Amino acid sequence: MPTEAILSTARQFLGVDPTVQIRLEPIKRGASGRTIVRVKTPVHEPFIGIHWNEDREDNEQFIPVAHFLKQAKLRVPSIIHERARHRVVLVEDLGDVDLLSMKDRPFAERLPYYRSAFEQVDKLFYAKPAKDFHLMPPFDAALYRWEQEYFFEFMVEDFLGMDASGLRADPVFKNLAERLGTVARHLVHRDFQSQNLLIKDEKVWLIDFQGLRRGRQEYDLASLIFDPYLDHTAKEREALLSLWEEIADERPIETLFHECAAQRLMQALGAYGNIVKNRGDEWYRPHIATAARLLGEVTAGTALESPLAPVLGAIRRLEK
Questions:
Q1: Which one of 39, 60, 225, 283 has the fewest beta carbons within 10 angstroms of its own beta carbon?
Q2: What residues contact residue 159 under an 8 Å CB cut-off, 6+ apart?
Q3: Phi, psi (rounded to 5 degrees) for 124
Q4: Signed CA dihedral, 41, 44, 46, 48: sign only
Q5: Are 72 and 123 in contact (CB under 8 A)?
Q6: What CA–CA distance (Å, rounded) separates 159 from 202?
Q7: What contacts 238, CB < 8 A, 6 or more positions away?
């Protein structure tokens, strides 16, 4: 059992016998095939225990990527004990405050945290892993097509009950994947959204970075700026782009940025459909309509608008 593996690893790390009380408090975070708990004991400050299964290759990357990012001076939790053979790692507890939990605060109050988050993206841009450092496969055309297929299968077919064969055959999606997949030089977090940005000491710290790979920086930016959980207004998105321009001295090309946003939103919709339909987690359901509306905005007037229209229309009708 995952919790038993974490508990035994915690006892090994602490060097305590079974009479010392250790409490494991579940932490619900995403759907990455991992068990995450807060470990509390009278003999040590709280820390986080993580156990992963073998279903996803990227979970095996958490430990080496954490070490690399720490060495590159990015803000990530420190590893305090690892037992990779048992698929368990103990890490620093950064607390429970993430960017999503601040959603209802005035946008102006949140801006310093966005700056802190964007500074991490900028630093990641310049991080250079060793040539023999193993990364997940880069964001190439095949991976973008996989994300699209995830959307077709789990949102269009499973959740909406529609036929996705026409979407699969439509060259507009293949062309999008090929355009975005032509460049994959720089490191990207791959899931740079508000739940993975924790706030400690008034700074943003990165978590869930096991999917680190080479790709387009615009994908990470689009993941946060068009984050369905936060549902930024057009004015807020413009403010965030201006903030990024201050940090990076450049602004993403609008067409490319919106294509990355469309790709990311399709991936998110596929994930929401899968989690709600097949795993019964209703927390994600309200975000489906938001993600669909944002996808409609970034594809308006493009070649993607027409083939996506029936899907987005079906989501709107479903949510009424």
A1: 283
A2: 272, 273, 274, 276, 277, 288
A3: -60, -35
A4: negative
A5: yes
A6: 39
A7: none
Distance CA 229, CA 232 (A): 9
Separation between Cα atoms, residue 312 and residue 320, nearest integer Å = 13
Which of 294, 89, 309, 53 minimizes the C-alpha distance to 207? Answer: 89
Domain 2-92 grouped into CATH 3.30.200.20: yes
Which amino acid is located at 122 in the chain? D
18-34: per-residue pLDDT in tens? 889 999 999 975 556 79
What was the pLDDT predicted at 30?
Answer: 54
May I ask the CATH class of domain 100-319? Answer: alpha beta
pTM for this prediction: 0.95
pLDDT at 116: 98
SS3 content of the chain, % helix, strand, coil (to 5): 55, 15, 30
Outline which parts of the chain fall under CATH 3.90.1200.10. Answer: 100-319
CB 209 within 8 A of CB 64: no
Judge residue 141's burial from the number of C-beta atoms within 10 Å of its C-beta, 0-12 exposed, 13-18 middle, 19 or more buried.
middle
Ranges of CATH 3.30.200.20 domains, the chain? 2-92
Considering just the CA atoms, what is the radius of gyration of the chain in Å? 20
